[in-house]
Amino acid sequence: MSKTLHLTAFMRPVSLHTGAWRYPGAYADANFNFGHLKSFIQKLERAKFDAFFMADHLAVLNMPVEALKRSHTVTSFEPFTLLSALAAVTDKIGLAATASTTFDEPYHVARRFASLDHISGGRAAWNIVTTSNPDAARNFGLSEHVEHGERYQRAREFFDVVTGLWDSFADDAIIRDQESGIFFDPEKLHVLDHKGEEFSVRGPLNIARPVQGWPVIVQAGQSEPGKQLAAETAELVFAAPRDLATAKALYADIKGRMPAAGRNPAHLKILPAAMIVIGDSVDEAKAKRAHLDSLVHYDSAIASLSIALGHDASGFDPDAPLPDNIPDTNASKSGRAQVLRLAEQEKLTVRQLAQRYGGYAGLALIGTPKTIADEMETWLNEEASDGFTCVFPFLPQGLDDVTEKLVPELQRRGLFRKDYEGSTLREHLGLSRPANRFFPA
Amino acid sequence: MSKTLHLTAFMRPVSLHTGAWRYPGAYADANFNFGHLKSFIQKLERAKFDAFFMADHLAVLNMPVEALKRSHTVTSFEPFTLLSALAAVTDKIGLAATASTTFDEPYHVARRFASLDHISGGRAAWNIVTTSNPDAARNFGLSEHVEHGERYQRAREFFDVVTGLWDSFADDAIIRDQESGIFFDPEKLHVLDHKGEEFSVRGPLNIARPVQGWPVIVQAGQSEPGKQLAAETAELVFAAPRDLATAKALYADIKGRMPAAGRNPAHLKILPAAMIVIGDSVDEAKAKRAHLDSLVHYDSAIASLSIALGHDASGFDPDAPLPDNIPDTNASKSGRAQVLRLAEQEKLTVRQLAQRYGGYAGLALIGTPKTIADEMETWLNEEASDGFTCVFPFLPQGLDDVTEKLVPELQRRGLFRKDYEGSTLREHLGLSRPANRFFPA
Question: Boundaries of each Luciferase-like domain copy (chains A, B) (predicted)?
């Protein structure tokens, strides 16, 4: 059988693009309107998407007030409450939520994802993030942000504790014999009793093993420790390489690390995030994006660039290239490396870079359903990706264009499913169900 | 207008009564079956209940394995994920979830409840608990449990931080002017910058002010600091006095503390938890309870008594009264006081006490719809309560008996609403919407 694409949606309620709330026809109130989110995910499910994934931050983004006041990102649903609610109005599509290993507790995280997996019938996925926003630390009692390397060390142990807690009960532990009165077999309950560098967690978890064994493990990280963590733990990666060559290198890099970590590279799907802008012609699609970018005020643009750099860029000369010697910070290293690469590749001025970052800076596929399907097919065949994490430029139209125009084209080519093959997210992604480490089959 | 009752449901998926999963017709799989929970809450909504409230624990309950294996409490949905999912399949009924002030972070708690309030259109309530289960501490990196007094001090500050975060945005802060590009008015955003004994939280919250201003504040505590915390902060109390006299005293005690805390006693509704067992005759109702209690194994019974006492009771003589000198622990003081009171009031042996605690130890209203409606009316008129927190002895039948037999009787007497008066939980409870402390109207 020839290879097929996996497609997930990566969203904010109004769009990841900061100008999107001003686009003609946009739902500017989507941050408060559960009905809009329900309509989005139900359309994606009808289009047979693998999963729906809501972006997250643990603070109002740190930008100057002149930019902040123009940003629809200041308010959003908390992803866990949102995804649980969406689980109740869908049947098949996967549900990916973010939980921070720096600012949350393994017991809480293990329990919530197990619960979402039971509620949804096996559709939960955990996006492991270490939280690069320095302002988040100040919302959790820390005056300084936790250092990058230590965040990843903690993330690795956090993962071990969470998966260990998910394995508290054997799959067949719960007997429920009303006659004898035995609810579960205590021989099939494991007390984790984890004592590590970062965490001391006794367990067991007070919820049965998730439907999927473990919810699907998701990661984004492109930094060195991020790639290593992905190779060791992730089953779905939505890293955002900027072009085919970078994507192929990243794909080979992450999958190449897996055997040394004792893993089969087929057990990780890499779905690069790509903003998809569709027109009846390539020129029309480009014009849509240009109009969208024009809706981003320069004050917001320069603030976004500052976040990406981890450094205030408002003092830079807008019409010169980026200065060379920007001081290091604890912010995301992969984010900064991407800015520097983009600036050099496209020879952009500070203003041009800022406009790109103020809108959406990542990979964009811009064209007709046919040209975009061609690109996706190339990426799949050249081992640059196993599919895509779709970013919609504006909502609802940008999503409708994908589900109504691009997906049918992919289906005609045999590149995408016409119906779900199974009922769990693992089944959609072709991932096996993890064995219980304490109760092997 | 004469006084009317408020009714909420306090539940575990299978019932709070530990023998309930074995009762004829019980849904023994309700801990895993979202469909059952959906049917329960939709029935309660059709009966016009004020709110649905899911019990919670942050550990597998600490009982000997011989008892544990008989307990349906070892697994349950996490309440937040469950209530969010239930929000999507209901329109009017309130949704109360527990969050621990000892083992969670104010920023997370403020954000999740605000999100649930937005998703549900103003139906969220926060049950503030300090978590008395010593095993919970060991799931969160602590080897010793946090001392009782310190837990309440932390709870009080936690409340101040959470409500301060909910007030981050003025109600009219979000402008969303697509033409000018201004999303919100930064003059109407408050940075909390809390620095206290227990917490340092900068803010602002990254979600707009909840629909209800603040989700409704709920508490159970009957200990001295619990009552004081309720008088200072709570809007709904589900304390479980064992009889009318105790209830009147508690009602007067908590409401009597409110003026000194600068609050109007009408702004707190006290709804004692009561297990309701309905029969066609009083004798039939009593027989149902006797059969239910008989389904609790003695090993579970003695373990439950040990939890209530905070002390292992398995060595006590089953046929003697409770020994006098049981050592003090950090477990819930109000729980232990209740055991001692019940033992003395009803002159119960250890075995009898254990059987009561192994099933459901709290207040029970047992009789016909008419006798129970009489009791409820008496409690309301004698200022022992503003309604009841209904505990169902077994499910689904125990719930159906309440919604199909008791509620119509209460409605005939004009004691309970025939339709919702408003759309938010505050409106159901007759509670005013709190002013924003930073942006007074």
Answer: 26-379
Residues in A closer than 8 angstroms to B105, CB to CB, are: 103-104, 140-141
- For residue A117, give the nearest of B38, B77, B116 by alpha carbon: B77
Helices A79-87 & B106-120 angle (0-180, nearest 10)? 40
* Owner of token pair 């390539």: A282
Longest CA–CA span in chain B (Å) reads: 79
Query: Which of A12, A36, A119, A158 should one mutate to test binding to chain B, selecting the residue with the greatest count of B CBs within 10 A?
Result: A119
Choose from B22, B78, B112 for mutation: most chain A CBs within 10 A: B78
Kindly report the nearest CA distance between residue B166 and chain A, in angstroms: 12
**CB-CB under 8 Å, B139 with A201:** yes
Mean predicted confidence (pLDDT) in A24-30: 93
Q: Smallest CA–CA separation between B259 and chain A, in Å?
A: 33
With H, G, I as helix, E, B as strand and everything else as coil, classify residue A310.
Answer: coil
> Residue B409 above 60 pLDDT?
yes
A84·B84 Cβ contact <8 A:
yes
Q: Tell me: ipTM over 0.85.
A: yes
Strand partners, B54: B11
Instruction: Name the DSSP class of A169.
Output: B
- Which CATH superfamily hosts domain A6-277+363-429? Luciferase-like domain (3.20.20.30)
Residue in B closest to A87 by C-alpha:
B85
Measure the N-to-C terminal CA separation of chain A; round to a whole number of Å: 30
Q: In chain A, what residues touch B89 (CB-CB under 8 Å)?
A: 88-89
Q: What is the CA radius of gyration of chain A?
A: 22
The answer to whether residue B231 scores a pLDDT higher than 50 is yes
| Region of residue A423 (phi > 0: left; psi between -120 and 50: alpha; otherwise: beta) | alpha
Contact B201 A140 (CB under 8 A): yes
Confidence (pLDDT) at B331? 65
Chain A residue with the nearest C-alpha to that of B189: A69
Q: Comparing C-alpha atoms, which of A116, A144, A214, A184 is closest to residue A432?
A: A214
All residues of chain A having their beta carbon less than 8 Å from the beta carbon of residue B210 are none
- Answer whether residue A392 shows pLDDT above 60: yes
State the residue for tokens 């622990």.
B329
pLDDT of B1 over the 60 cut: no
